[in-house]
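Researcher: We're teaching a course module on how sequence relates to structure. For the next exercise, students receive a sequence and then see the predicted structure as tokens, so they can try to spot secondary structure elements on their own. Here is the exercise chain.
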Amino acid sequence: MHNRGLGGWMAKRRMKSPDKTALIFDDASISYRSLADDADRMAAVLFDRGVQKGDRVAFLGENCPEFLVTLFGSAILGAVFVPVNTRLAPPEIAHVLSDSGARVLVHDPSASKTVESLELGVDHLLQTGADGLGALLSETQAGHVDLDVALEDPAVIMYTSGTTGRAKGAVLTHGNLTWMAMNCVIDYDVVSTDVALMISPLFHAASLGMGALPAILKGATIVLEKGFDPERALRLIAEHRVTMLSGVPTTYQLLADHDLWSATDLSTLRKLTCGGSPVPTRIMNAYEERGLSFSQGYGMTEASPGATSLSPAMSRTKQGSVGLGHFFTDVRIVDANGAVAARGTVGEIEVMGPNVFAGYHNLPEATTAAFSDDGWLRSGDMGYLDDDGYLFISDRLKDMIISGGENIYPAEPENLINDIDGVTAVAVIGVLDDRWGEVPWAILTVSDGATVTLEDVRAQLDGKLARYKIPKNVIVVDELPRTASGKIRKTELRTRYAR
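Model: And here is the predicted structure for the students to work with:
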């Protein structure tokens, strides 16, 4: 086979497990043969619209089979798939499409108004659904083409919020995603008999790279949900005998707090993975009472995205840790000079492995800055390794906020808040929240006589940023704490307000 990347996966699954259920969606079962045939048809649809190797194909929509059909159809041609976060505001969506240079946008009907309101610059729009993409696929003859695609070729451009206020496109190769899937198969013991409930959006690197792709690689079954509803999720776990579940702490809290929790049969669950932030002790206790424990981890989009994993067996012994490097991935700590730090010493976390990305799309300087002189990915996060090599996160060098599993870089809201009349300075910090883990707050100084309220901030950001990035509270202070060089001391603000 000439296609060594994701484009060859469906053809091999069709040969190895044609009648096995690949997806369960809206109570309908889709076999691997059917999924592979649709991926071939999608490749033909894209080819008929001029898509060639290296061209970008974007997808804007909730979880659905068409997401995976578009991903694998693009991969068959060697085209690059660009998943778009549906929670982004229209200007942010426009930036992703423009920056990536997408030639085709596949979107679901719920995004039609957004798509129509923007000047996107794409050559072709395809809408999902029976009357749109479904009709096109049914009219297209299935037939697999085997083109030259190498593991080093780009497969996906995944946009991640930028520290300077503009999202950057992380280029993930076929090899990056393949090795990430292999890491998960080994460290999470994924097997073909697994049934994975997918309730997190596939446009997130973790859901795609560590959820869907490892399951497909092994020929497991995915119960694919458009979104997360705790009551429905609990019913599906019992109905489909789910063995695997991934989410963020908020996901697991909402499940455990639901009235159906105690009555739901969870006996088949054996693999719970949680990322985004540490699992609170209260949630761990609730699951351990049901005989369940978590695999936790740490990562970033640029690592496809997993860097470390903490096995359930060590969740108490090493509580607070994010675990060891994945099987094919190494983690180290370096000091301010780039030298490897001693165990127990806090420094910057760096990552090395075949799952580490190729670089940022059209941003050579940012790509160079993302790596150390000897080729390790610089995370920008601070941490230390204990004597056993387990990683503990100490602080976020980039001041990133993680709210309900979504990354928020304060520079984005700060840049817009600074444009409000009367604002003289602003710092956005993460404040602990029982439901979302963290939520953003804005700490402001204003000019004499000026009044700036939460409503003013919301009005300024509404429609320009995703709603989860908009501060949930505004505090006006006389002055912001600063270093001798004039930089705002966010650590002091977090100490004052975030706990």
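Model: If you want an answer key for the exercise: DSSP finds 15 helices and 25 strands in the chain. The first helix runs from residue 9 to 16.
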